[in-house]
Amino acid sequence: MSFMELSETVNQKMFSIILATYNCGQKVENTLLSILSQNKELFELIVLDGASTDNTLDYIKKYENNLTLISEKDDGVYDAFNKGIDKAIGKYIYFIGAGDRLQPGVLEKVKEFLPQDSPTFVYGDFYLMKQKIYESKKFRSSDLIFNNICHQAIFYHRDIFDIIGKYDSQYKVFADWIFNLKCFTQQGISKQYIPCLIADFEEGGLSSELNNDPAFKKDFPRLVKRQLGVSAYLKCKAFLINPTLFSYCYNAGYTLLGHLISFARPPVRGYRYMKKAIRNKT
Fold first, then answer.
1. How far is residue 154's CA from residue 12's CA, in Å, rounded to a whole number?
2. 22: number of CA atoms within 13 Å, CB side?
3. What does each C-alpha distance from 93 to 18, 210, 233 come to in angstroms?
4. Which of 42, 111, 149, 204 lies deepest, with the highest CB count within 10 Å?
5. pLDDT reading at 276 higher than 60
6. Interval 102-114: pLDDT, tens
7. If you average pLDDT over residues 188-199, what whole number do you get?
8. What is the three-class DSSP state of 108?
9. What does the mean pLDDT of the chain come to?
10. Looking at domain 15-205, what is its CATH homologous superfamily?
């Protein structure tokens, strides 16, 4: 049965929260507590554990009366998320990882913003714990060339997964980035930013993670070209070569890049004239 065909029932929750875990130990408990402290009338919690071999399951089972637990081998976090999507029956689907934390009472706040019927991609703000950076921004499609919206800040209307499909689990680190770009460029999916801090996000460095997902680095520029055109494709290629430099230039309004181009233009023009003159002479 497709999501769109799923009939509403009295017991349907507003949110399906999907938590993926694997050998994360005690830190999963803080994540669980941040979820279970929310209004329990609003959500169901589905935990997909990749057959952990440490004490992760011990911490999860402490709260097993308040969640659905599936522990089995999987093909990574996005494969686990896809399994969770198949189990979820909430109107909106939310993904979180062990070590992340929902803000207190945030589901009560978010529900006031949510459209009930139209397939809407709703996103808010998040806090990057390792970098101590608060991310607050309304995105455009072009922003997704070089900056993803972390899934800890997004609530996906369940019909979106009928329109787009599920995550492509061949991308081990950034399947959500590709999925989000498709959402932003897909007709029929509304995008709504809400000025609300959703979660604290435990994350690593972008450059190192890009190198950990070679399939993404290979395929993402082609997707950008197909969705946003050649100019966006060239920006994407430049970004993947040097994310730090490109992001600096972009955020500075291309001031530095503009200076470099202006400086280089006269010598390049002179070289072209000289080359043309030599060719004509010969």
1. 20
2. 13
3. 7, 26, 30
4. 149
5. no
6. 999 999 999 999 9
7. 95
8. helix
9. 86
10. Spore Coat Polysaccharide Biosynthesis Protein SpsA; Chain A (3.90.550.10)
